[in-house]
Amino acid sequence: MRDDFTQKTKLTLQHRVGNCCSNPECRRKTTGPNSDYTKASSIGVACHITAASMNGPRYDSDLFPEDRKSVLNGIWLCESCAKMIDVDVVRYPVELLYGWKHQAEAIAKYEYEGQDVPLELLYSGYNCPYCETFVKEGITFCKGCHADICYGLTPKEKGETAKSWGMVGLGSCMVLFMFVPEFLNGIFGFSIQSFFGNAFFSLGFTAVLSFLLMIFMPEHEHKKRLKENPRFFKARSY
Ligand SMILES: [Zn+2]
Ligand SMILES: [Zn+2]
Prior knowledge:
This protein has seven helices and eight strands; from the N terminus they run H-E-E-E-H-E-H-H-H-E-E-E-H-H-E. It is an alpha+beta fold. The protein folds into two domains: 116 residues, no CATH class; 79 residues, no CATH class. A two-stranded antiparallel ribbon has the order 1-2. It has a two-stranded antiparallel ribbon with strand order 3-4. Helix 6 crosses helix 7.
């Protein structure tokens, strides 16, 4: 048995989000004119957040049938997003869909009241710690206070990272070529020469290793830092 939405519930879901798809990445209008000028076309679907029947996507056996077909368990989507959420329930869990729904309703409320929709509802981004202005993801300065926004490492930090990894290269090669032979000789009575008897090779090896570390490690740390929130700097303080 399926706990389908009534026509009234479907309409309520559609109107609560101003007839837009509730996926924040999509947001398309779900109705429009048909070429038959006596008709309108619709691609909107009232979807179940937890499935209408057993074995359906995100089915919750704890719900009563009334809950399952109530407005609370529905989300308005375009046909393509409706399909998308049902073929991959791991990627589109219940909590995410509730989040979409609340966001879509919040946006629709501003639009319905004739107000500007706050940017933070429409885009992902960050609030400036100095002036609280919302900054869209990817933008590199704050419109409110002209703070610079740095994603990843600053140029100065990159320089310093390169320097310290260069030192690591030099230091570890010194240990390898000078102290390791001495250490082995001391313990096992070997007679290995410093630089393993080949200073030219050792110096070349040291140079190449240090150079590679200086090139790749700053990039690696930059990429690692990119996964965190960007930092805001006042007036070129970096
Ligand atoms: Zn959509
Ligand atoms: Zn600011």
